[in-house]
Design goal:
Blueprint lengths: L7 E5 L3 H7 L4 H21 L4 E8 L7 H17 L1 H6 L3 E5 L7 H13 L7 E8 L1 H17 L26 E4 L18 E4 L9 H12 L10
This protein binds 3-methylbut-3-enyl trihydrogen diphosphate (IPE) (2 copies) and magnesium ion (MG).
Length: 234
């Protein structure tokens, strides 16, 4: 369909470290630049009519990085979510998070819960931050939730199908229509495995701190030029 706007866009925001190293900066400077870029590009994406934006900000595997980098990122999350609460409210954006609690500190966890609570009535788009997130764990956790509800006689197995399964993921969001990965890596890295089953995939060599409005529009043009068949013949 021509000029169709994806309902849900996912971005694997990769390449912050390389972007910084290439210009003689510290990797952590790249994360700061990436966060600044995210705010700007996200507003543009939602202004196009996209309803949900999911971004991969920190994977469960990212805890394996140096202590310095992990603690920089954790304090960036705390600072950003504290100081940008107003930004999200002003732009009417509902913020949600996907991921496990452990081993995030209470400080990080509480600031996440607080911004979720403050923006819960916003209606201008959903911003899903995946932090301490793993796609396989999300499916396992959803399955455990279902098993628990079944044991407590709160659901019947007939209620579970591929559509209703979304309800038990970290957030009940529609499937991802367009998945973008920056920085030239051609892999999924455990991102939203259930929700990307029929996503259109777009890979760009641009590192995330340079992924601006023009770069998103290129991805959107590419998406709109595709013949999305979903198993049918069109
Ligand atoms: C993505 O950029 C951000 C996070 C994973 C937190 P990277 O930090 O992975 O940047 P590169 O891939 O090393 O360049
Ligand atoms: C994926 O990026 C995770 C995020 C963007 C937060 P990585 O840079 O960690 O991915 P891999 O492990 O190199 O594939
Ligand atoms: Mg990377």
């Amino acid at each position: 369909m021509k000029n169709k706007i994806p309902t849900h866009v996912g971005i694997i925001m990769d390449g912050n470290g390389r972007w910084a190293t290439r210009q003689g900066l510290k990797r952590t400077d790249g994360h700061y630049a990436g966060y600044k870029r995210l705010k700007q590009t996200a507003l543009h994406i939602l202004s196009k009519g996209v309803k949900v934006l999911s971004v991969f900000a920190f994977s469960t595997e990212n805890f394996g990085r140096s202590e310095e980098e992990v603690s920089y990122l954790m304090s960036l999350f705390v600072k950003a979510f504290k100081s940008d609460k107003k930004f999200f409210i002003k732009n009417n954006i509902k913020v949600v998070f996907s991921g496990r609690h452990e081993p995030l500190s209470d400080e990080v966890w509480n600031v996440m819960r607080e911004i979720e609570e403050s923006t819960k009535d916003c209606t201008g788009g959903v911003f899903n931050f995946c932090i301490n997130y793993g796609g396989q764990s999300e499916i396992v956790d959803a399955s455990k939730t279902i098993a628990k509800l079944y044991k407590e006689d709160k659901i019947s197995l007939d209620e579970i199908d591929t559509n209703t399964f979304y309800k038990y993921l970290y957030n009940d969001l529609p499937p991802i229509d367009l998945l973008i990965r920056t920085s030239g890596e051609i892999r999924i890295s455990n991102f939203m495995l259930y929700s990307i089953s029929y996503s259109e995939l777009y890979f760009t060599s641009t590192c995330f701190p340079d992924f601006d409005e023009i770069e998103f529009d290129k991805a959107l043009d590419d998406y709109q030029s595709r013949n999305i068949t979903k198993g049918k013949i069109k």
